[in-house]
Design goal:
The complex is a heterodimer of chains A (about 200) and B (about 800). With about 200 residues, chain A is of the alpha+beta class. Chain A is built from six helices and five strands, in the order αββαβββαααα. Chain A starts with a helix and ends with a helix. The N terminus of chain A is likely disordered. Chain B is α+β, with helices and mostly antiparallel strands and about 800 residues long. Chain B folds into three domains: about 180 residues, Aldehyde Oxidoreductase, domain 3 (Alpha-Beta Complex); about 325 residues, Aldehyde Oxidoreductase, domain 4 (2-Layer Sandwich), CATH 3.30.365; about 170 residues, Aldehyde oxidase/xanthine dehydrogenase, molybdopterin binding domain (Aldehyde Oxidoreductase, domain 4, 2-Layer Sandwich), CATH 3.30.365. Helices cover about 30% and strands about 25% of the residues of chain B. Chain B has 20 helices and 32 strands. In chain B, helix 9 packs parallel to helix 10, helix 15 packs across helix 16 and helix 18 packs across helix 19. The longest helix of chain B has 28 residues. Chain B is globular. Classes of the chains: A alpha+beta (about 200), B alpha+beta (about 800). The interface between A and B is large, with 66 and 69 residues.
Chain lengths: ~200, ~800
């Protein structure tokens, strides 16, 4: 069963909560507060495929993937910059396609392959070619936006492995940086693309 | 002697954590039993809390505590995290802690706050009208600062006569609360061949760091542990202590990574006291996640200004006199001094032989302001550049030439005059060199030749502007230890914003001791790790201040190495040299000690060698940290006492080419170059990032970014990225150009000045000058220059918006 954002907001309204703030609210583990399941509620204990691993996780019906990753699975590399699909800091790959994790309901990605920044490098520590490119060019400053940019670039390069600077800029244009040396970000991601082709 | 580290690129150790997602920012920390908090924000721009009914909220299962302003320490009238008299819409009134966020938010909805509406005003000029409302019960404007006491708020109203100029779109100039002048102003104007008098409206913008000011706090054994965002770790501990009402020694602040600052949290954020105090109240860890909307209210904004500049020019373009009047909107709290920085920057950048600066610093019921990257200097670029560009056109002078003619040179003089009536002077300036270099690299003449030619609906233009900012404080401390493992440990008290000044300072220490970088550990981001008293990581300060301090500490360690060698091996300290991780006798390299041996000997000798005796002039925080580290090795610890003759300022010349579509009003940036005069280059790659990033912030201010406030209801409208559009990667060319002159400042031993701010004003002014060059020098008198503004002017011959209205 998949849930649209609209239906989930309707459900939240019916539950008496505030629709406008529901998306960025987070309810902690069920053990802390006994939550009763409303009739017709979706199954809460689900299995996700994250970074190649099966993870069992207890998920509320209105929970976004970003919150599940950050607060249930300990994957805090996925950042929340706006929680409203404006900044791209929470970009992850779902079946190799970049998505804003703040705007994906966790229930809707059962059975899909989810990849986050933590899954990019090898278990032994070897960096993914794009990470290596970013490292070698020292691509970012504060780097809060870095994971989102790297995931967006990774997804884009699967469709266009040999882009021009302009094409790659379009590929990551859904991501904002506020330190704003976009020149170096692009240089770093281009270097990563080069390493990826050589790999 | 190994190759110097200063001037070379390197891989800062924190970047590995960043690319793997392991770098932990404040909201990435968890603690067992952690509660969440949600804030109740004022819906009104100015109101008084009559009463709060929390019964229904407190009765909810899962709600643990509610914090109100009554729970906060008195800060002597300064802004607190919660208020019983909110003075802007969005100001937090209370905070609920609950087992999860949804419960906390539901509880907020069940709280009844009875608010008594009070008069409010969102536009600084409206507050100055004869019958204008005051934004605060105490008044509407901040008076001139009194030494040792700061500014007090007072009431000032201008007359109807004063406002008669408004009908002509010119800033009324009633009584000013602050003023300075030098030179013969009237004579300067009388001698001028051309006198121009223009008014410009500079916007406010939210800093909007990528990381909001989330924070998580818990208490252990009477100590507060807090994960919070700050630009300056050492300088934030005391503030948090004050906001929470405890002693600084009871605070452990952890902030290894900060997701941007731009001035919005120079020394922390007052809101961080909310989770700290809620944690105390509930005896549980508390996480406060700040949303993007909340950040737009409490996350700080740039001061907006309406400025009027009357400037006289000789026939050759030389400025003869400058008369500047600024009405600054300093927001709900404050007061900020950006208007003073603006006046000073005008004197530095344009070198008028006679100048007067007048200003009124007005409070409004709009979100709190704080210095934003190039605070005041960027604003004054916008106020003055339209006049310069217009004069250049009328006098038939090239933009670069008129800037060069009026640029500061060497130890140039500037106002305001000191108490002795004398002007100050710069340590050094190479602005003419930066303009010459930029004009050459940018192919200025070729681009200029094609400017103004219409191709289809498109027309191009070129612009140049020089930005500046104070670029270096002095008198801070450093601590470093060479330990028996043979490594150098450098304590860094500044914040880690990713500019790498946090680590660059250790490059200087390592060079002083001829230490290879692989043997250097930088310790930063945690006040529990014994950090020295450091400069604020704001206002282009760090590179200058902390390279000096770490040179002093390195020299102290050198001396101790030499003394230990002389003591053990004979001769005098001066007989010994440092190199190859050893201290050895000149002319006989085999006679010496390794650093590891010397560190062990320092511990055995004790006293000043291992930090058990400390210099008398270091700060108390440094003393406590050094005392905690005493005995771990040979300690270098010192205060920066190097002399300096003059005031340190940095500069950046920005060159822009734009293309304007005269049928749609859309502006496209075609090319951009920034050339920085920032002294010796410490870290080339990071420096270029700072120039590009700063210029991009200025470009965004020229083209998109603004804060919008509804004057009727007093509510901020631009509360998301969508409404205050930051620059995206598609808004700049696929290549940006930047370089630095690399000319050392002679008044600092390492030669380096700061870089953070000057590129911003350069980008802002250069892009707006290029637009004016393309479509006409009178097309706009406000920023950002959005398509509607360009189109209205070109199509209808009049400007968009009421000429003086702010926050539109």
């Amino acid at each position: 069963m998949s849930l649209s954002r609209r239906n989930f907001i309707k459900g939240v309204i019916a539950g008496g909560a505030v629709a406008t703030s529901a998306g960025y609210l987070f309810r902690g583990g069920g053990s802390l507060l006994g939550q009763s399941s409303a009739p017709g509620a979706v199954e809460r204990l689900i299995t996700l495929s994250v970074n190649g691993q099966s993870r069992r996780v207890d998920v509320m019906k209105q929970e976004t993937l970003a919150m599940t990753l950050r607060y249930k699975l300990g994957l805090t590399g996925t950042k929340l910059g706006c929680d409203r699909a404006e900044c791209g800091a929470c970009t992850v790959l779902i079946d190799d396609v970049p998505h804003y994790a703040c705007s994906v309901l966790t229930h809707s990605v059962r059975g899909r392959r989810i990849a986050t920044i933590e899954g990019m490098s090898e278990p032994g520590g070897a960096l993914h070619p794009i990470q290596q490119g970013v490292l070698d060019e020292q691509g970012f400053q504060c780097a809060f936006c870095l994971p989102g940019f790297v995931m967006a670039a990774t997804g884009f390069l699967k469709t266009n492995p040999n882009p021009t600077r302009e094409e790659l800029a379009h590929g990551v244009s859904g991501n904002l940086c506020r330190c704003q040396d976009y020149d170096k970000i692009l240089t770093a991601l281009m270097r990563g693309a080069e390493y990826l082709r050589q790999a | 002697m190994a190759e110097k580290l200063v001037g070379q690129n390197y891989l800062p150790v924190d970047h590995i954590a960043k690319v793997t997602g392991r770098a932990k920012y404040a909201e990435d920390f968890r603690a067992d039993g952690m509660l969440f908090t949600k804030l109740l924000l004022s819906p009104m721009p100015h109101a008084r809390v009559r009463s709060i009914n929390m019964d229904a909220a407190l009765a909810m299962p899962g709600v643990r505590a509610i914090l109100t302003a009554d729970d906060l320490p008195d800060l002597g009238g300064a802004e607190r995290a919660l208020s019983n008299e909110p003075i802007y819409a969005g100001e937090p009134i209370l905070a609920v802690a609950a087992v999860d966020e949804l419960t906390a938010a539901e509880a907020v909805e069940r709280i009844d706050v009875d608010l008594e509406p009070l008069p409010f005003v969102t536009d600084s000029l409206d507050s100055l009208r004869p019958d204008g409302p005051n934004p605060r019960l105490e008044g509407n404007a901040w008076g001139a600062p009194v030494p040792g006491e700061g500014s007090a708020i007072e009431t000032i109203k201008w007359t109807t006569d004063d406002f008669s100029e408004e009908a002509f779109g010119r800033l009324p100039m009633g009584r000013a609360l602050e003023e300075w002048s030098y030179g013969e102003l009237d004579a300067g104007f009388a001698d001028a061949a051309l006198v121009l008098d223009e008014t410009f409206v500079v916007q406010s913008t939210c800093h909007h760091t990528m990381e909001t000011r989330s924070a998580m706090a818990y208490w252990q054994n009477g100590k507060l542990f807090i994960h919070a965002t700050t630009q300056s770790v050492a300088r934030t501990r005391g503030n948090i202590a004050r906001w929470v009402g405890i002693d600084p020694t009871q605070v452990v602040l952890i902030s290894e990574y900060t997701g941007g600052g731009f001035g919005s949290r120079g020394a922390g954020a007052v809101s961080s006291s909310i989770p700290a105090l809620l944690s105390k109240k509930t005896n549980a860890p508390v996480m406060m996640r700040i949303t993007r909307e909340e950040e737009s209210y409490i996350g700080r904004q740039r001061t907006n200004m309406t400025g009027r500049a009357k400037i006289g020019f000789a026939n050759d373009g030389r400025i003869t006199a400058l008369d500047l009047f600024i009405v600054q909107d300093t927001g709900a709290y404050g007061p900020l001094g950006d208007h003073r920085s603006a006046g000073r920057a005008a004197s530095i950048l344009y070198q008028p032989p006679a100048m007067r600066w007048r200003a009124v610093n007005v409070a409004t019921n709009t979100p709190p302001r704080q210095q934003q990257r190039s605070p005041g200097e960027m604003q004054v670029n916008a106020i003055i550049e339209p006049v310069i560009t217009k004069a250049a056109k009328q006098l038939g002078i090239d933009q670069v030439a008129i800037h060069r003619l009026n640029a500061p040179e060497g130890k140039a003089m500037f106002g305001p005059p000191g108490q002795d009536g004398q002007l100050q002077y710069l340590t050094s300036s190479f602005v003419k060199e930066a303009l010459d270099r930029g004009a050459e690299v940018f192919n200025w003449d070729a681009r200029r030749a094609r400017a103004g030619q219409r191709r289809g609906s498109k027309v191009r233009g070129v612009g140049v502007t020089v930005g500046t900012h104070g670029a270096g404080s002095t008198d801070y401390d450093s601590i470093m230890t060479i330990r028996p493992d043979g490594r150098l440990y450098v304590q860094s008290g500044v914040g880690n914003l990713g500019t790498h000044s946090c680590m660059d300072l250790a490059r200087v220490a390592a060079d002083t001791l001829d230490m290879p970088w692989e043997k250097v550990e930088v310790i930063w981001g945690n006040t529990g790790k014994h950090l020295p008293w450091s400069c604020m990581s704001v206002g282009s300060q760090t590179t200058h201040a902390m390279t000096r301090a770490n040179l002093a500490g390195g020299m102290d360690a050198r001396r101790k190495l030499q003394e230990i060698a002389a003591r053990d091996l004979g001769g005098s300290a001066a007989d010994y040299e440092i190199g190859g991780e050893r201290v050895f006798r000149r002319g006989n390299a085999t006679q010496g000690l390794t650093f590891a041996q010397a560190a062990q000997r320092a511990i055995e000798l004790g006293g000043e060698y291992d930090g058990h005796e400390l210099p008398g002039d270091i700060n108390e925080m440094t003393r406590a940290s050094a005392t905690a580290l005493a005995g771990v090795g040979l300690m270098g610890v010192a205060r920066d006492n190097y002399p300096r003759d003059g005031a340190t300022f940095s500069f950046t010349a920005g060159f822009a080419e734009v293309e304007v579509d005269v049928e749609t009003g859309a502006v496209t940036l075609v090319d951009y170059l920034g050339v920085a005069d920032v002294g010796t280059v410490i870290n080339p790659r990071s420096l270029i990032a700072q120039i590009n990033g700063g210029c991009c912030l200025g470009i965004a201010h020229a083209l998109f970014q603004k804060a919008v406030v509804d004057p009727r209801y007093g509510v901020s409208l631009g509360d998301r990225f969508h409404y205050s559009k930051p620059l995206s990667i598609l808004d700049v060319p696929a290549r940006l150009q930047a370089e630095a002159l690399g000319l050392p400042d002679p008044e600092t031993p390492v030669g380096a000045r700061g870089v953070g701010e000057p590129p911003v004003g350069a980008g802002y002014g250069a892009v707006m000058n290029a637009i004016a060059d393309a479509v006409g020098v009178d097309v706009f008198r406000r920023a950002p220059v959005t398509a509607d503004i360009v189109l209205m002017s070109l199509e209808h011959g009049r400007r968009m918006h009421d000429p003086l209205r702010a926050h539109v």
